[in-house]
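for the writeup, i need someone to sanity check this before i put it in the appendix. the sequnce is what the collaborator sent (i think, or maybe the updated version? ugh). structure was predicted straight from it, no edits. if anything looks off just tell me and ill rerun, i have time this weekend
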Amino acid sequence: MIPNTLSIAGVDPSGGAGVLADVKTMSALGAYGMAVIAALTAQNTRAVTGISPVPPEFVAAQIDTLFADVRVDAVKIGMLGQAGVTRVVADRLEYWKPAHLVLDPVMVAKSGDHLLERQAVVALREGLIPLATVITPNLPEAGVLLGQSPADNLKDMRRVAERLRRLLADDGERWVFLKGGHLPGDDTIDLLHDGDRLIELPGRRIDTPNTHGTGCTLSAAMAALLPRAPDVPEAARHAKAWLERAIAAAGQLQVGSGHGPVHHFHALWPKPQD
């Protein structure tokens, strides 16, 4: 069965991040992508120049209308922007109870612009994280969630993963996917932790400026893969390997003059001729 996968996130008009990147990712990985719009941005590959919120009640209406008709096999949550939207998303997903929920706690854009109100962090930590199957923070986001400085070495990353796991519910299979891309050096080691197992996912840094939307893309890939994967670690390995290839192929695109997008359709589109 082809999985139906939903992104609840913001709109990046450049298509490198947000729901546009999510639906591309889901489509590329063989899932049927859907989207609930939680925030609007004026954004390109260089900067976020404006954010316009979506009323929380309309976000709730989008979620309820979709779930009332469509089988939703997995949900990915990205940029929510406001505390009110964060609370209403948590409320509606607690009601509908999707089988797989991947939470990417989006806080800052690649350009450095802030995408989440500070008061929304509490709503995220207390309302949404306990519902998640997998959370996918990077090191700065993990630091904000835990109220501490970001980890800068693998030893501290392990401690952070353990602390983050305590924010998740105790029932069922629930995982922290802690991304190590902000560590110094050429290694990009990610950690998976379910409270028992601690799994390292090795990787090497790819020399490219085209990394806009990598967090969105990874979490959307997890949502696309989880309904058909034997377990979370297998989905995570597949998602990371696929993203690495998308980053490596990003130079085939010519989108903007800043941090360009990854190539979501690297395995499907013909390679441009030199």
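The chain has a mean pLDDT of 94. The helical segments are 18-28, 56-67, 83-96, 120-128, 139-146, 154-165, 214-225, 232-248.
thx in advance!!
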